[in-house]
Amino acid sequence: MRYDSITEVIGNTPLVRIDPAVHGLRRIDLYAKLEMLNPFGSVKDRAAWNMARPGLPGAVRRGETVVELSSGNTAKALALIAGMHGLPFKSVTNRMRIPEIKDLLLLLGAEIEELPGQTECLDPTLTEDPLTLFHRELTRPGSAHLHTDQYFNDRNTEAHATGTGPEIVADLDGRAPDWFIACIGTAGSSTGVARVLRAHDPDVRVVGLVGRKADFIPGIRTVDEVHEVGLFDPDTYDTIEAVGTDEAIDGMLTLARRCGILAGPTGGAAYYGAVRHLRAAEEELTGRATAVFIVCDRGESYLSYVRRHRPELFNRPPVKNSVATLTPAEVQSAAAVDTAAAQRWIAEQQPLVIDLRSPFAYAALHIEGSINIVDELFDELLRGGLPFGKQQPVLLACPVGEQSARYAALLTRMGHPDARSLAGGIIAWRDAGAPLVRE
Amino acid sequence: MSEAPEHREPPHLEPPHLEPPHLEPLYLEPRLEPPLASLLESGAFLHSLTDALGSPLAVLLPDRIAENAGQFRAVYRRHHLSGSVCYAHKANRSSALVRRLAVTDAALDAASLGELQHALGAGFTADRIVATGPKDPEFLWLAALTGTTVHIDGQGELEELAGLVRKHGLPRVRILLRLSDFRAPGVRIRSRPSRFGTSAGSLDRLLDAVERHRDTVEPIGTAYHLDTTSLDEKAVALEGCLHAMDALRRRGFRPRTVDAGGGFGVDYLAHGAQWDRYTTALTHAVLGRRPPLTWGGHGYGLRAENGTLRGTLGLYPSHRPVAGAAYLDALLSLPAPSLGRPLGALLLENLYDLHTEPGRALLDQCGLTLARVLEVRRTDSGEQLVRLAAKASDIGLEEHGVLVDPVLVGRGGDEDPGGPPVGVHLTGSLCLESDLITRRTVFLPRPPRTGDLLAFANTAGYCMDFGATRAQRQPPARKVAVHRAADGWQWCLDEQYWPITRQGDPQA
User: Fold this and answer.
1) DSSP assignment, residue B101?
2) SS3 for A93?
3) Chain B contact for A223, CB < 8 A?
4) Euclidean distance between CA atoms B130 and B119, whole angstroms
5) Do domains B4-60+365-496 and B62-266+316-363 have the same CATH topology?
6) Using one digit for the tens of pLDDT, what is the confidence trace for B443-469?
């Protein structure tokens, strides 16, 4: 298929049936609407393009900056769209909690502004909260901004009422599904799709999914935050249910490992919430029924998110030559020398002095003639074997002599005959009045 | 008093429309640890104290501040760091707390001439005091004379201090440079503008001035204080201070101390689930989807516009799972935004000492405020009012945005539950419509009666005397220090407390 512009590729995403052997529903056909296959990678491509499009010619003429409150997929799509039109993009966000997305936005040339956390010494009369100030800046006369305003912009909903919704109906041979399940972020996709489906069949049941309160699932608002969304209307949904981080990751794993769908946590949450809701609803069902949920985006950007919440999913085999495998007795018996003895030893035998602190600290002050191999690098070096000959005596130095003792023990275990630790570390060295240099 | 019998009547005799249709009591129970928890179980003791000394009454547990300082010290040890834990005195005027702390290894952050005098008088030597905040010439002079370390807010203050030292022939003063407005790598953080400190971007100009005055001042390090609960913002600031230390070294100074300020926070609530449920209910109340949870439908900063929630919740996060010493631990474990190493490791390997200035966090569980119930009545619209012998300013929780329930302490013990849970409004003793102890509807496990005490737990940090007024010639609460001796609770007036005076203990 040939296109003139990448934006023409937005939409017309596939509807893929989930294998009943995976979800276990007996009377319901469950379909995933794969919004992750949009060109910029998410369901937000539709809204971003539809919201930005009318304003772009004027913005180009006036040299405006595209601005949005987003820490995720909308920012990503808008950054790409803005770039295509030669416009700068600025994202204002509470906190970029997904490092991969933050880095990607920076790579795309976006400017990111983060809003501060809550104040510790509360001033209840303060009306100048940073978000209010931001809005005031945008609405100031002469402000050179194209603000897409995703949480309040009806063109967000419209993108789905004219695109996502009709596509689902067309793919189900002109019928609306019996259930539609979607996570609520800006409420644009769920509201737009629900409007179309209900017009086809007023009996469609719409399930909105929100994040459990203490949890954070990227792209989904929590049960309280959802009320801050202008597009959110509780009457859109027959029911609103909460999903937790663990459940979202479970859903994400099922879709990836069993269905070949590399969804992100939001898609995982939608799958998990859909199956949970439908399993209960199925009990009252006599005939067959269909249900559709939305897979918002792809999983690759969320590896650090999953690692933080479920480190056990990333277990690796133990590494060779690791300080973690040392026994306390080994560490205890590592050779150590105090400052005075170390100074004599350095003068007489010229051992290799290895400073395990970071380059930043080493650059500020260090023992003259020492070389700097920061602990994490040294750790990696040792995995491959001894990085210096056995005839070369070694003095290891760290801030207080703990880490250096561990590495001295490890070197000894690896067969080094004369590796010693600077007892009390560089702090003891300084406190003893021994010289430290800055070069 | 004439109101009291009316409320002992069985509930079914009351007009049915009067009880607002609250589905269930939305409690926000305080987190209570020993010894505060057992103090609250000693109702007779608390009643006798209030009978003698009047309501409101502030009760302090000085031993607990030493324990809290020990928890901070344990975090220092875990990261192998040395340096001082400086109690931010402004959080409480109490003498007992300062005198108790003087016999620990903690230091003190004095923010006024009076606080500096108080600390010196309590036994803190000047090497254990830092002078912070806006300073008048007398404060600067006494700090310089005694050898107290001075936080320098900006170039103006530096010039003033240097002038004082020269004019009065004072010894060279150790100073910490207070910085603000740090830049994060990659992103711009819209931090709240601060009135305090020198912008990190203007450090060079400040250092020029420090060099000009090196005969009068000795920069021993850098400092920041950010008014935020966000760890990431603090990580940016702490790393900024490390870079500033480097700048000092480049100019030939030998700085040794990084001061990470305060703001470690307190977890006020026993159950996070209650906080979650309450704030959700408040959201629904503001949107009109459930009956109001506050006096006059106050939204604590939230409001409804066309069915959408607007505004920002202007409340202290009463439930903070990571607070106090644990928050410091988390901060030190966080990787520095540009250097990548954990901040604690960077401080250590640069051989720096860490200063912290916890106020609220050191006073966690250190005291409570008692108020007597004077009157219980219903308004015509059915709201239950409970009038206390205290002004709103005597119980600073509301002023600081902390939502937490008071504990009902009955005179005769609590063997008689005395009725179902109720939602009440707590009003103060001033002749002023707005004198509400809290604008929140407070749920109590039973209807309060005249003569009961309400104990507001965990008020020692900022919520005891910081904003207390003398309006209508009503004095602020008296303070007593208590401790548990072998034969029960013992007390003395706050100003009578010294760490060696232990009423009730066997005389050693």
Assistant:
1) H
2) strand
3) yes
4) 10
5) no
6) 999 999 999 999 999 999 999 999 899
Instruction: Report ipTM (2 d.p.).
Output: 0.74
CB contact under 8 A, A122 and B287: no
Testing the interface with A: which of B234, B316, B351 to mutate, by most A Cβ within 10 A? Answer: B351
Cβ of A361 within 8 Å of Cβ of B233? The answer is no
pLDDT tens sequence across A137-165: 777 777 789 999 998 899 999 999 999 99
Domains and CATH numbers, chain A: 6-43+154-314 (3.40.50.1100), 45-147 (3.40.50.1100), 324-431 (3.40.250.10)
> Helix, strand, or coil here: B474?
coil
- In this complex, is the C-beta atom of A229 within 8 Å of any C-beta atom belonging to chain B? yes
CA–CA dist B150, B174 (Å, integer)? 6
Q: What is the pTM of this model?
A: 0.84
CATH of B62-266+316-363 given 3.20.20.10, 1.20.1260.10, 3.40.120.10, 3.40.1280.10: 3.20.20.10
Q: What residue segments make up the domains of chain B, in order of their start?
A: 4-60+365-496, 62-266+316-363, 272-311
d(CA A100, CA A82): 20
Residue B304: what pLDDT?
87
Put simply, whether A92 touches B (Cβ < 8 Å) is yes
Q: Name the closest residue on chain A to residue B316, using Cα atoms.
A: A122
Q: A74-105 pLDDT, tens per residue?
A: 999 999 999 999 999 999 887 677 888 988 99
CA separation for the pair B45, B215 (Å, rounded): 58
